Amino acid sequence: MKHLSILGSTGSVGENTLRVVRIHPERFSVKALAVKKNIEKLYEQAVEFRPKVVCIYDAPRAQEAAPKFKRLGIRVVMGDEGLEEVATLVGVQEVICAMVGAVGLKPIFAAVRAKKTVAIANKEPLVMAGKLLLAAAEKSGVRVLPIDSEHSALWQCLEKQDPVFVKKLIITSSGGPFRNRKGSLAKITPAQALNHPKWKMGPKITIDSATMMNKGLEVIEAANLFRVPAQKIDVLVHPEAIVHALVEFVDGSHFAHLGVTDMRLPIQYALSYPERLEDHLPHLDLAHLTALHFEKPDRMRFPCLDLGYTASKIGGTMPAVLNAANEVAVEAFLGHRIGFLGIPKIIEKTMRSHSLVYKPVLADIFAADAWARETAEELS
Predict the structure, then answer these.
(1) What's the mean pLDDT in 97-125?
(2) Nearest-5° angle of CA 190, CA 188, CA 304?
(3) DSSP letter at 295?
């Protein structure tokens, strides 16, 4: 039995994690849950899974809800201290990190220092402070496991492979809503950018897909996770979304990871590793695949991808600046304050203005994040 803490339990990754737990109750139990403010859904989860502790990050909401959870015999904690308590709870072996934004950084580092295995779904920790996090994990003797489908696929392809024989890592992209759109993207509206042809996601990640910033961020994640330079990572547009990643070896061989597109697959692997558990998902039927298409992304039309490569190559605090400026620019676009093409312009201007810290500590990362948000807001 593996005991879990789930940070961000009411989001899509958190809910899918609980679906895996529900299917395998003999293997997993939930000891703690954490959310920012969705108390109603958290309460439903608490009734079903009966954790020992829940964290509601928003303090006023937590104080208001505490008596309701107390009647279930569940203690309520709040704020940054509450998140760290949930992440370091005695008896928990694995912490699933799915809280969006920089708020998840401190509890993830706390979990690693407490010698918990950490499974990461949100991009910010590996983008902003990936090298620091992996160094801390190595010092504590624990693993950082990816839940992102592309990085889970790379991890599985690279398992037991000697890095010296790896020539290239390849992550795939659906291409977003504007893959086949002709003409300028200057007049794209938020409604158009939010209309993803394949998946229903939150607004921020949907806009990242439209600008291809999601792949720019994933390049940084992969470079940090697998300790390879950004120039050894390629992105290919693959509209069928069946092949999630590939590894090319020096002899010309390619390993590819194929599977149905369902977050429960990488979540379950991160929970059960090094074992594989029988799933209850639709299986990939290769006989029904008519074709698999791959193409290079148009970097001129989608400059956010190159900004991700640039931030990874520069390193230091620059990935944190890229991430923060992108969040602010996306919000400005969704709020109709800037145009679609204003997103990469604001990010690039913010990056150009940044005074880089080459070897940052965690305090430098937070300072760069705050500076970039303020600068990007001024540019918006």
Answers:
(1) 90
(2) 90
(3) B
Of the candidates 319, 316, 345, the residue with the CA atom closest to the CA atom of residue 330: 345
325: CB partners within 8 A, 6+ apart: 346, 347, 350, 351, 372, 373, 375, 376
Residue type, 50: R
Orientation of helix 318-334 relative to helix 362-379, angle to 10°: 30
At residue 310, the pLDDT reads: 98
Q: Where in the chain is the domain with CATH 3.40.50.720?
A: 2-122
Q: How far is CA 323 from CA 125, 171, 206, 343, 376, in A?
A: 10, 19, 15, 12, 11
Distance CA 186, CA 193 (A): 12
Other Cβ atoms less than 10 A from the Cβ of 315: the count is 19
- What span, in angstroms and rounded, lies between the C-alpha atoms of 156 and 137? 19
Tokens representing 1 are: 């039995």
Hey, how many other C-beta atoms are within 10 angstroms of the C-beta on 60?
10
From the options 3.40.50.720, 3.40.20.10, 1.10.357.10, 3.30.390.10, give the CATH code of 2-122: 3.40.50.720
* CATH 1.10.1740.10 domain range(s) in the chain: 151-379
pLDDT in tens, 262-297: 899 999 999 999 999 987 777 888 998 889 999 999
Find where tokens 């209309």 sit.
Answer: 195
Structure tokens at 49: 């899974």
What local confidence, expressed as pLDDT, does residue 65 receive?
A: 92
**What three-state secondary structure class fits 358?**
coil
Can you read off the two tokens belonging to residue 52?
């020992």
**Degrees (nearest 5) of the Cα angle 206, 209, 214?**
110
Question: What's the CA gap between 135 and 141, in Å, rounded?
Answer: 10
User: Can you tell me the distance from the alpha carbon of 144 to that of 292, in angstroms, rounded to the nearest whole number?
Assistant: 31
Structure tokens at 230: 């950004």
Q: What are the residues whose beta carbons fall under 8 Å from the beta carbon of 374, sequence distance 6 or more?
A: none
Burial class (CB in 10 A: 0-12, 13-18, 19+), 329: buried
What kind of architecture, by CATH, is found in domain 151-379? Orthogonal Bundle (1.10)
Distance CA 128, CA 171 (A): 20
